[in-house]
Write a structure and sequence with these properties.
By secondary structure, the protein is mainly α. The chain contains four helices and two strands.
């Protein structure tokens, strides 16, 4: 993908931030920014849907199947405790997966867009 030049006035130096509504409007309309948003949605929508489904299943089971959740799995450990721990574990797993995904797929493109806005060439 060839980067689209963005209108930056003056000759920015390293560390200078391009300002003005035209610069930000152009950046928001650029194909690179659209790709960045698309990549982010490709992770966030399925991850959110999966987590919310899992969370509401847990809530529904608590409401409509308390007998099932009271089942002892190992000693005094019940199914509800395991599922509750699973909620915490899945939250940390999704967070770790997102950080890894962002490092590989989002941050390089975001850095490229930011560098163009700031007029930095590496």
């Amino acid at each position: 993908m060839t980067p689209t030049p963005l209108p930056v006035t003056g000759s920015p130096q390293r560390g200078d931030v391009a300002t003005g509504p035209d610069v930000w409007t152009a950046a928001a309309r650029s194909p690179e920014f659209a790709e960045l948003r698309s990549r982010q949605r490709r992770f966030l929508i399925p991850a959110t849907a999966g987590f919310l489904s899992w969370f509401f299943l847990f809530i529904a089971l608590n409401a409509w199947a308390p007998g099932l959740l009271g089942t002892r799995v190992l000693g005094d450990l019940t199914l509800v405790v395991l599922l509750a721990i699973g909620q915490f574990a899945s939250t940390f797993a999704i967070t770790a997966a997102y950080v890894r995904y962002a490092d590989r797929r989002l941050d390089p493109l975001a850095d490229e867009i930011r560098e163009r806005l700031e007029g930095i060439r590496r």
